[in-house]
Specification:
There is one protein chain. By secondary structure, this protein is mostly beta strands. The protein has a domain of 130 residues. The chain is built from 2 helices and 31 strands. The chain has a 7-stranded mixed sheet, with no helix packed on it. Strands 4, 5, 6, 7 and 8 form a 5-stranded antiparallel sheet that branches. Strand 7 and strand 8 form a beta hairpin. The two termini are 13 Å apart. InterPro entries: Integrin_alpha_N.
């Protein structure tokens, strides 16, 4: 079960204020029926009729399935061919048959639904379902990913006049739908990887059939796997793909690819600049719509400590549009993922951790130039907590037999004596109250 709480700590002088955003994950699981998860905002009164139709058309012993990339729905209702008539797409499995995955398209006729066609899926797992116009005809195509063991296959279907056509079939490790060349037409980029053998990126665009815009086929394949691939804005005016590659069970590096003049180009190679001893997902960490690359940085003064004991910062950088990276934000992420502290970007290079700190016991975040403590996290027994809870400590939650407490005094002086509040959220994750 996940619930979100917000705790606001009063502003304590001058410039800074800290607010606590607490996310609690208690391990509860919800199992929802397909009707409650239908994406049918315009057909809410017709859910029972639609579900009855689906159940009547499904073969005996079959089960509706939800794509692995979508926790929200197993039923997709859209006007696929833009003729004013709604269609519904569902997938079901027949595990005892040679072909295990099937798709079915229903069409709205008056107050009822009729079955238009059934098609077979090429795999044993439905990985993904997307409805987008990738053929440029103004109609929605059905883009599906299937897998069988480690093998994945992408299929693009075009639906028209009650018939379905496969217009693209490809193996893939990850596929991305975007407009990388920014010509206003959706394209499909396929990442393909086999450890120690090949790593390729190929972008396809439709023009009387899908054609290759460009391909990178000389990428380094000597790593374990891609653990994270994201696409979107990598600069204010540039689309791109960011790939996080796991070197081994811990360390990783990141590289970035953009398209210029219909040619793919690696602008940040996976080198020492993006290497990290722990996996960090690249993401839009500050919510400005641009993807950042995450790096691991030791606090000042901890450079010669045992790496296993260092309370590393996660620091995030943006591409500068040329061949470098620019710092944007910093946070401390608890190794057991129990909480996250997000610090003001202005503190980068000055914020550190007191070298007397010990993970899972107490952490003191200080300004290296003044020694001022700006935040503390400590683990208390129940008796210890009773003694300190009135001394400015806020309870983040409980973990095993310990209470995790936080107190903060986030203050910062700026030139000219201006006074701007700095929000520095703390997220509480995976611990019980």
């Amino acid at each position: 079960m996940e619930r979100v709480m917000k705790l606001n700590i009063r502003s304590l002088r001058r410039l800074a204020v800290v607010s606590l955003t607490l996310t609690v994950l208690s391990g509860c699981t919800f199992i929802s029926d397909p009707v409650s998860k239908m994406k049918l905002p315009q057909l809410s009164a017709d859910k029972a009729t639609l579900m009855a139709a689906i159940n009547s058309f499904n073969p005996p012993g079959s089960t509706l399935i939800r794509p692995a990339n979508d926790d929200d729905s197993s039923i997709f209702t859209e006007d696929l061919n833009k003729d004013g008539v709604m269609e519904t797409i569902v997938f079901y499995e027949t595990p005892d048959e040679a072909v295990q995955i099937h798709g079915m398209i229903l069409e709205k006729k008056g107050d009822s639904w009729v079955k238009k066609l059934v098609f077979d899926g090429d795999g044993t797992v439905l990985e993904s379902v997307d409805l987008k116009d990738v053929t440029g005809d103004g109609k929605l195509d059905i883009i599906t990913g299937y897998s069988r063991g480690e093998e994945k296959g992408l299929v693009v279907y075009s639906y028209s006049s009650g018939s379905l056509e496969e217009v693209l079939t490809l193996p893939y490790t990850k596929y991305i739908m975007d407009d990388l060349n920014e010509d206003g037409i959706e394209d499909i980029t396929v990442v393909s990887f086999k450890r120690n053998e090949f790593a390729t990126i190929t972008t396809y665009q439709y023009n009387d059939g899908f054609n290759v815009l460009d391909k990178l086929d000389d990428l380094d394949p000597y790593f374990n796997n891609y653990y994270n691939i994201v696409a979107g804005k990598v600069a204010e005016d540039k689309e791109g793909i960011v790939l996080d590659a796991a070197v081994d069970s811990h360390s990783a590096y990141t590289y970035m690819v953009v398209m210029e003049n219909n040619m793919l180009r690696v602008v940040i190679p996976g080198d020492a600049r993006t290497f990290k001893d722990q996996r960090i997902d690249s993401e839009d960490i500050d919510g400005d719509g641009i993807i950042e690359i995450g790096l691991l940085e030791p606090p000042k003064g901890w450079e010669y400590f045992d790496p296993e004991t260092i309370p590393y910062f996660n620091s995030y950088y943006k591409w500068d549009g040329k061949d470098g990276l620019v710092f944007t934000s910093q946070q401390y992420r608890d190794p057991a993922d129990r909480f996250i502290i997000k610090f003001s970007p202005e503190w980068h290079g000055n914020l550190t951790v007191d070298t007397k700190s010990v993970q899972n016991k107490s952490l003191k975040f200080i300004m290296s130039d003044t020694g001022e403590t700006v935040a503390e996290v400590s683990f208390f027994s129940s008796l210890e907590w009773e003694r300190v809870k009135g001394a400015g400590w806020e309870m983040l939650g409980r973990d095993a037999d310990k209470i995790i407490g936080y107190r903060g005094k986030l203050e910062q002086s700026t030139n000219g004596g201006s006074s701007n509040k700095i929000a520095s959220p703390i997220e509480r994750k995976g611990i019980d109250e």
